[in-house]
Amino acid sequence: MPQPVPVTVSATLAADEALARRRSAGEAVVPLASGEIGLPVLPELRERLAGAAGLNAYGPVAGSPELRAAAAGYWRRRGLDADPDLVVSGPGSKPLLFALMLAVGGDVVIPVPSWVSYAAQAALAGGRAIPVATRPGEGGVPDPEALRAAVRSARARGRDPRSVVVTLPDNPTGTVASPGTVRELARAARELDLVVISDEIYCDLVFDPADRAVSPAVHAPERTVVTTGLTKNLGVGGWRTGVARLPDGPLGRDLHQRLVGVASQVWSSTAAPVQAAAAYAFAEPPEVLAHVAASRRLHATTTRAVAALFAATGAELTPVRATCYLYPDFEPLRARLADTHGVRDGAGIAALLAERHGVVLLPGSAFGEPDTSLRVRAATSRLYGEGDAERAAALTAPDPLRLPWIRDSLDRVKAALTDLVADRPPTRGELS
Amino acid sequence: MPQPVPVTVSATLAADEALARRRSAGEAVVPLASGEIGLPVLPELRERLAGAAGLNAYGPVAGSPELRAAAAGYWRRRGLDADPDLVVSGPGSKPLLFALMLAVGGDVVIPVPSWVSYAAQAALAGGRAIPVATRPGEGGVPDPEALRAAVRSARARGRDPRSVVVTLPDNPTGTVASPGTVRELARAARELDLVVISDEIYCDLVFDPADRAVSPAVHAPERTVVTTGLTKNLGVGGWRTGVARLPDGPLGRDLHQRLVGVASQVWSSTAAPVQAAAAYAFAEPPEVLAHVAASRRLHATTTRAVAALFAATGAELTPVRATCYLYPDFEPLRARLADTHGVRDGAGIAALLAERHGVVLLPGSAFGEPDTSLRVRAATSRLYGEGDAERAAALTAPDPLRLPWIRDSLDRVKAALTDLVADRPPTRGELS
User: What pLDDT is attached to residue A428?
Assistant: First the structure.
């Protein structure tokens, strides 16, 4: 039987499951692969879901009026005008991004590096991903000049790019593109007649409150779709809930109709009890804001501590300003890694750290980098403990780095990195 | 900007939303369009969801081990061998069907008439639907002889059919294909090397327990994927939960891997609290079985009563054996409908009944019939009352047809049909 588009399991989800298997086999692991947020559900949010368990109707495809109004308010408080009639709910921002690619059609420009699923989704939606490099230290936004060249070249070759994805703040780099770069990107998208799909799922996880990411929706409001969800700020990825804000105007209204059409044929609606809880969360009562702020502080402290360990090895690392990710580049240590360990790529680094130290992270190749790249992505959001008690303690600790389980993970990362960049292989005695 | 594949909103979901608008405008309506089950959630099931509200991790893409084991047990109790490792959970059986079409690729044979979303999903998945008529009175399964001819002809024209969808029991007709037809279909699929996608979401809603639908998985176990969910038997469509059972053997294992790949890139996982509740439901403790049995009795009683009203008009109607649907054909009354009302198609019947009587149903054209067809589909699952109290009363009533709100709906349907098939237009006095 002929085979359709190849599909591989999402690298982060696959790493997650591999980790769970290692753990259940009794191995000690430091889980730095998946960005799943290992924190308990805010009790008030949990109660909203429980209280809505009797809701069994589909409701509107685009989401309940309460959820859409709350999401619109959420965006308005962040400086983006939003019309509840142009908000669409989905079972996660991931399916919304996929449905947008289906609704827009054509090929999709994506930044390099970028989240593991954009390119796979573009292929599943029948298009192709057109990778465009980001500017140094400004992950998530394709370099606007390179975007122009790539789109013109693609069109000259008969390809049909119709959208560009940006990630603000960025996964995998933990950086935030500058306001100037975002403005230039928006201008380029308008010149090239591209829809901008702005994945802002990390927008509440910018460490310094004075340091907000600017949405391209500010500069190209007529063509920018913004997506977000509760997976990162409130750690309820397993609930599967996201929202998209469609642009106002003819392009946006047409796209809204197409997106709702796709949603109606692919998923019908988002789980009704989850929608009820999400409506509460997007309204941002004080306890929700406090919980998000506490998680943000915890991510900032832990991510910066892990980043310092990587930076101390001599790897290149742009300071992390948001999310729970860091994206070091071991290029300055290429010769030493090859000499000492025979390691010549990110996959080699990841394999060495996992097999020898149980430190599990992802190679840059999972994010669209060349296989030869020595970049890796480390996510710190699974270091907060096992079980809700440890995790709740991490969330409220004045200095979470002193909690023994976090301290232990950091020590294990430090030891693993010391071994990785040693200028000779460790002796048997040093390893044990 | 060039346009991608056209997408229209699912006809049933669109009708549902139109109905909600009419209702909120204070109009009296008899909702026969959508097959959403208007019954309350079983209290024990609701409690399971509420109790699982703290589950916020993604868990495995294919679903929790508990859910997969429970679903496998569910199928084994229905005579189908099932391996939990070949079960895949999704946020509804709808997204599973779509993901299967993506995972299999190519064009998709669908029965005519059939559920509104198969053809739309095939197009979104990059293929085309190849419609094949069903045998009279045996909806849901393409006539095996016609299937052979259609697939051979499609291949001769360079098209690439790789799968055939069947619906057992059938929506929209409420019929169940005979065991002989299912066996022939399975044989034809093997000859033609087609994957069989067997949508068995109504399998618990066969009215007579002696009258079970036979799955093609019995006859073509190596190539049949079975999907189901809790939307119809337990009325929790708004929770969005479904499961797929992949075939054992090389084809099935390859398809399983591809399906999990698609799932990981499109939706990640099913809402974790919903999975916990679904694991409980698929294990079928006595209270679940009793609730399903009560709903089945209610559907049977109500659907047969509505069917009798349609049959009394002279419309052709195969006896309904399952689901909550009936699918009358007004062809014998074509001349009268044209003379009296100027009605020449199913859409005309639906418009007349809706506008003049508030009786909302769907024309056969929504299910792939020619526009000129005088078939319509009526769903009775929304007649059980407004709010949980009326609906719970309907579920336990010894004779639900005597409940005033159901009685009233039936009377309104009867009056509407009397008007429809009258041999002269009603006078003003008769209408008021």
Answer: 56
